[in-house]
Design brief:
Shape: globular
GO molecular function: ATP binding; phosphorelay sensor kinase activity
CATH class of the largest domain: Alpha Beta
Catalytic activity: ATP + protein L-histidine = ADP + protein N-phospho-L-histidine
Keywords: ATP-binding, Coiled coil, Kinase, Nucleotide-binding, Phosphoprotein, Transferase, Two-component regulatory system
Strand order of the largest sheet: 1-9-10-8-7-5
Distance between the termini: 42 Å
Largest sheet: 6 strands, mixed
Order of helices and strands: EEHHEEHEEHEEHHEE
EC number: 2.7.13.3
Protein name: histidine kinase
Strand content: 15-25%
CATH topology of the largest domain: Heat Shock Protein 90
CATH superfamily of the largest domain: Histidine kinase-like ATPase, C-terminal domain
Length: 256
């Protein structure tokens, strides 16, 4: 049985090119307020984490050559605290990206070029893990209004998820096609797949099936896609893999 999760953009979302936000068209100032507040809080948190990490580093230098069991245990505890500080700093950065990713600045982009560059970037790492990457792109693909950096981040999140679903290796296929006034981009993997109860929650912030996962990668991807006026649909079957379809509006005629 194949489970499906679909998220589409709201009828109130803007399709106009340029700067846009997935926040309600009537509340952009409120959204910006919340994003700024989150940014200030996270900045302060990371400052304190930096101070704590520095002191832990200085403390660990006192135990570089532990001679007793007690000293070895102390060094282990310091290192665990250092790892936790780094985890919290990474989580803070991910949350800040999640809060701010609804605001995009779009320009017409050649999707074929963007996807080829992305494939070249990720292929070496995937090959080391026994994962083959295939890419199929039509020559007549129209340009798409994108915030290049944010959209690449969304695709990287999806590729990372596919990679993590294939610990024994496998195949990732990226393909694109033109569908009337839209462009559909698909990322298909031969990984473990997800049961319906997991698939139903994948876009919920902080939900993760991995002990070390932040649960913000896919929610961030969702927000980025929606902010581009698009929608995302996911199909998955345990033991067979997962397919992600992203549909985006093509650039208006005459714009390239």
């Amino acid at each position: 049985m194949t489970a499906t999760a679909t998220l589409t953009k709201s009828p109130t979302d803007t399709d106009q090119p340029g700067v846009c936000s997935h926040a309600s068209a009537n509340t952009p100032d409120r959204y910006q307020e919340l994003a700024d507040l989150a940014g200030r809080i996270i900045h302060e948190l990371k400052n304190h984490l930096g101070t704590l990490s520095l002191n832990l580093q200085l403390l660990s230098e006192e135990f570089q050559n532990p001679e007793t069991h007690r000293e070895r245990r102390a060094l282990q505890r310091i290192r665990r605290l250092q790892q936790e500080c780094q985890r919290l700093a990474d989580l803070s950065s991910e949350f800040l990206r999640f809060v701010r990713c609804g605001q995009v600045e779009r320009h017409p982009e050649d999707l074929n070029t963007l996807l080829r560059e992305l494939a070249e970037f990720v292929s070496p790492s995937l090959r080391q893990k026994g994962i083959e990457l295939q890419i199929f792109l039509p020559a007549d693909l129209p340009s798409v209004w994108l915030d290049r950096d944010l959209f690449q981040q969304a695709l990287l999140n999806l590729i990372l998820n596919a990679e993590q679903a294939m610990p024994q290796g496998g195949l990732i296929t990226i393909q694109a096609e033109r569908c009337k006034d839209t462009v559909r981009l698909s990322i298909i993997d031969t990984g473990e797949g997800m049961p319906p109860e997991v698939l139903a929650q994948i876009f919920r912030p902080f939900f993760s099936t991995r002990p070390t996962g932040s649960g913000l990668g896919l929610p961030t991807t969702k927000k980025i896609i929606e902010a581009h006026g698009g929608h995302i649909a996911v199909q998955s079957e345990v033991g067979r893999g997962t397919r992600v379809d992203i549909t985006l509006p093509a650039s208006p005629p005459g714009i390239s």
